[in-house]
Amino acid sequence: MKRQITLKVNGVEREVYVEPWWSLAQVLREELGLTGTKISCETGNCGACTVLVNGKAVKSCLLLAVKAREKEILTIEGLGENGKLSPLQEAFVEHFAVQCGYCTPGMIMAAKALLDETPNPSEEEVREAIRGNLCRCTGYVKIVEAILSCSEKVKKEGGGQK
Amino acid sequence: MRFQYLEPTSIEEAMSILSEYDGKAKVIAGGTDLLVQIRNKTIRPEYLVDIGRIPKLDYIKEENDGLRIGTLTTIRALEKSAELHQRYPVISQAAGQLGSVAIRNMGTLGGNLCNAAPSAETAPALIGLSARAKIVSPDGERVVPLENFFVGPGEAVLKKGELLVEIQISPMPPDTKAVYLKHAIRGSIDLAIVGVAAIVTLEPGSNVCKDIKLVLGAVAPTPMRARQAEEIIRGKKIDDALIDKCAQVAADESRPITDVRASQWYRKEMVKVLTRQAIKEAIAK
Fold first, then answer.
1. The whole model's pTM is what?
2. What distances in angstroms separate CA A79 from CA A36, A66, A86, A162, B162, one per listed residue?
3. B26: closest CA of chain A, how far (Å)
């Protein structure tokens, strides 16, 4: 039986009617029209569904929507402002870290979680942060470079993305 | 995948629901193993009992007689805990090799143990540290050595209406070093092909082994102590030849199967490799 829940997504409270077995990924896409979050493996392996809940990266395909009440949910649509891409998003574009784009929202959310917690990650820390995000196109090198270019140190030295 | 979703707000309420719907209900905490099993139709629970809203089950605290970890503590919290890094680093090391960051943010210690996969990442190190599982039931509570917590693949020792609430660990003896190594196809994101925990206590200032615990994951129906291998080293001066012999005995003792990840032969070979490596790393610390 469906129940009404309130989800706070990208700063906005939204009311949805959900069955208990619907994942947050499904609800974001189908009830809220936020299709930036992708559903791919549905087993928590590929990371295409990665969103932030209370600042932490989670696999939204394994998170029941009902469990996501009263939490701050941030999706790829929540980055950037007024149609302008965020520095992290810009970095992915500039570094050719996007090919088909399917892994990209999940990658960026995983990267954002890392940079928010660790503003100056090492390459190993970046690779660990995206270990749960699979990319079939790029070979990861450009993705790692894009994320590293957003480190606080690089930005302060005038390089990377502003 | 249809079920009713219940959210008890107390342990008592949870136990009552689990008793009433025994056989038809499953506990959900992080959900990272459970939802995959439900989608695969491996299990078809009619009720999901979400214990995530029960307060005071998420903690890592040091008490006089050692460490206590609440069942809802996330794997990520174990990985990042400054307290564990300082006093029981092998627990953080093992937790950090489970899945990926996002999985570790969601999954819980209780879930990893109660899911009772033979490859459960947190089990070998905790068993090697002689951890105990505190289980509550409608009739009271009991404490079970973690070594006896696992009955078979996917089956823990919990009975009708019971809930795992805490893992208890005694202080590590002095001069004890512990290492957990995992071998998997693509590193942490895959289930372990072999997991080895080595907890070695040396006589002070020497290479003589006062005590050793070797616990193997993913190579038997449950995580297992390699007791015969331990006997090879316990009480003796540790050198490379002895480590090699111990590693071979551990491999012989192990009872792996062939599955999609690796063959039985390969797993036995990797038990040998990882046991040797784990002991060497432990005594080098």
1. 0.96
2. 11, 24, 6, 15, 44
3. 14
